[in-house]
Structures are given as C-alpha cells and as structure tokens.
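Work Package 3 (structural annotation) set out to generate three-dimensional models for the target panel prioritized at the project kickoff. During this period the team completed the workflow that converts sequence records into discrete structure tokens, so that structures can be stored uniformly alongside our sequence database. As a representative example, we reproduce one entry of 373 residues exactly as it appears in the project archive.
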Amino acid sequence: MRDSIREKNKEIQATSDSMYVPRYGQVSFVTPLSSNGMDGSKYMHYISLNILQGYNGALKGVEFGGLLNGNKGYVTGAQFAGLGNYAGGNLRGAQFAGLANFSTSVLGAQFAGIANVSGGSVSGWQTAGVINVSADSLNGMQTVGVINVISSARKSKAWQLAGVGNVSLAQQTGAQISGVFNVANRLKGGQVGLINVAENMKGFQIGLINIADSISGVPIGLISVSGNGVFDINLWTSDFLSFNGGIRVGSQYVYNIYAYGVSPFDPDLPFGFGIGMGGHIPFKKAFIDIDGIAWTMHRSYLSFNGVNMITQLRVMGGFKFNKYLSIFAGPALNIGVQENRYATFNNYAFYEYAGANTTVNIWPGFIAGIRLF
C-alpha cells in the first residue's frame, strides 16, 4: 500500500512539475515588482528572494522573504519569512515564520510564532506559540503554547503537547499532554492535564477531572467518571465513625470514593468528610478492594481551624450477589494527625508521637458494609 501511495505521489508531483516553467531564481520587491513581472506564478524556482513580499508558482530549494512568501503550488525545500509563508500545494520540507505558516499538506515541519495550519495531513512536526491545526491526519507531533487541533476523524499516530489544551477528533495512537485540558475522540495511549475528556479511551488519564464515555485502562484523579465504569453507593460502619455513606465512581478497576461519616450516639457527635482512591480486583462474584481515604474530622460543629485528619488504608474482601447488592468487610490501618488541642478519636493506638503542637496516632481498625447498584 505504501508503494502505491509513493507512486501516486510521484504522479502528482510529475503533474505539478509540468504546470510550472523552471527558472533558477527570482528576486521580488513586492508583487508584481519582481524579475518575473506579472508572471511569477507561472514559474518554479530553486532560489527565491522576496525583499518584502513575493508570489510565485512553486519552489524546489530555498525561499527568503522580509515579510511574506507565497507559492501557488508545491514547496519542496524551505521557506523563511518575517511574517508568513504560504504554500498552495504540498510542503515537503520546512516553513519558518515569525507569525504564521500555511500549506495544503505537510511532510516535514512548520515553525511559527503564532500559528501553523495544514489544510491536509501532517507527517512531521508543527510547533507554534498559539495554535497548530492539522485538518487531516497527523503522524508526528504538535507542540504549542496554547492549543493543538487535529480536526479529522482519520487514524493518526500523534503526540500533542500544549500549554493550555489539545483537541483531537482523530482515531489517535499516542498521547495528549497539556497544562489545562485535553479532548479526544478515540485515543489509544494517555492524557495528562487538569481536565481530560475522551469518547473512547484505551490507556490512562491523569488529571484533576477525568471523563470518558468508555475507558479500558486507568484514570487517576480527584474526579474520574466513565460511562462503562462504576457508579455505586456504599454504606458501612467503622471503628471511629459508626455510620458512613459514600459514592464510588471510576473505571472498572480504579475508582474514587467521596464519603461522609458520623457517630450520632456519641455525645461529642464526631463526623467527617472523606475523599479517596483505590483499586478493584474482581474474581467472578468475589472481589478485593484496596483504597486509601483522607478524612477531615470534626466534633459537634464544622471547623477547619488547624489540622484534624485521619488517613485510612483499607483492604476489603467482598461478594457480589447480583448487580444491585454486594457486601464487603476487612481491616484498616488508621493514621491520625491532629493538633494537640483536639481530642483523639481512639484509645488503642499502637504508636503515638506527641510533638509540641501535633500528635500522631496509628491504630488498627475495621470496616464492614454493603454496596448498592
């Protein structure tokens, strides 16, 4: 298939060559003030020099422009411009511009201060200060200060690295890494950003918020939601809070849990808010869950003055009766870190460290509960 593509490209190139009259070089001040006069678009040049701006037929070699370089057809070689480069045909080589580059397709690289745009596929590298756009497939890399875009649904093998965001409508193999957000149609690889969104994900998502319509892999974040993952309610009792409820969301194997617990029969009315992350290991109807939850603890009223926390490591074995009901139970390891003004939440720590302002307690615990839906 690759040979047929090469042959097709050769045919296209031959046809393109026949459209333009070869000339060794040209000099332009601004079109039509040039050595080619009004007929610059008829010629293919090996060396092209545009003092301010020039518009010619095609290029096989190198072109320099104080402001703008333009070619009606293909560019094979390199264009250098203070502001922008334009190739109405395919680019085989590189474009360097202070502001923007455009070509019908890219086999090589585009470097611009603001924007690179390919009206077709890109095989190579686009790097810009603000935006890179590939209107067809991308096989290579995009690096940008703000946003990268692949606007075709065709297969791509691509890495996208952006300061703000990446958007891909492609069936992409590779990765999206950004400072803020990543959006993908179908991605086999990974997403790393504050917010990650994918229609179909095979790989991993690492971020503050991860959303996928379907995921086969691992989401790691504060909030991870998947259409084919888990969303259930957990009710349990533990050694330091009598009644606990939580929502568990995530993929089939990795989940987040958001919890609230209270001991209503204790005169001090202790209660807490918990957030955690864990892994689910299924064995037909049986399963093992291992997770960690960080609790912020309170007595009688809500206060966040000072440190008053319990970190809990839980190992639970469970059994799933049906899709609506499961039971689970297991041991827990609790680590309390509290300012000395707060009373501890246990009386049977096997380790205690009392500092000048903070006390650390470690003690064993338990959990037992049910899972709904």
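The first helix runs from residue 2 to 19.
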